[in-house]
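[09:14] KT: can someone run the structure on this one? pasting the chain below
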Amino acid sequence: MLAKRIIPCLDVKNGQTVKGVNFENLRVAGDPVEMGEFYSMEGADELVYLDITASHEGRRTFTNLVKRVAERLSIPFTVGGGINTIQDIDNLLNAGADKASINSAAIRNPNLVNEIARNFGSQMCVVAIDAKLQPNGRWLCYVNGGRIPTDKELLPWALEVQERGAGEILFTSMDHDGVQKGYANEALHVLSQHLNIPLIASGGAGQMSHFRDAFTLGGADAALAASVFHFGDIRISDLKQYLRSENVIVR
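[09:31] RB: done, structure tokens below
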């Protein structure tokens, strides 16, 4: 079994790390560069930086911030938000990012996934999927930071982007985001049974057992969290020690 990864996520708005509940009611958590450096020292395996209003506001991702992060970080980091073209990806990778995450742009232009894989390799392409469980039991995908529903369904869309060359899937359950009651393990399990690329769980971490369950029940390859790390509820070093005691292999 490959070692499971722990990934803090830093949602960035106006140069500050923010965090909300169900994608709303944002509060400031701190400086994204300083926080990233702290997480690196704490034992995080990777980081994800998301410019959470870039797509909605129709602007490019924060290249200057990426440069500052790259200068201070010793672990890989992924950048997302407002990426629409191959040139955007090239700019971010040149600024020091290790991977690019696309969400809204992939749904609007699925061929972008193929282009990224062809130009930079699948390992550079993370497709993020924000999805919400509907009353009829379907998981629908949303764009523009969870603001706009689409007709795409979670599993078929995940399988399509895998086929197109995505290297990883980052699945966020919008219903679980910021609520701290656990990940969407049933949906994760379905995805993990059908995908043969790494699956990152996102949305719902509130205690250490939630990470264990995402790995053991959900079958996730990595678990991403924000609030519990940003506001000091869980330290990454303690989390890894706990997971080892639960027979989960971590780095």
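[09:33] KT: thanks! The CA atoms of residues 142 and 148 lie 5 Å apart.
[09:34] RB: yep, looked fine to me
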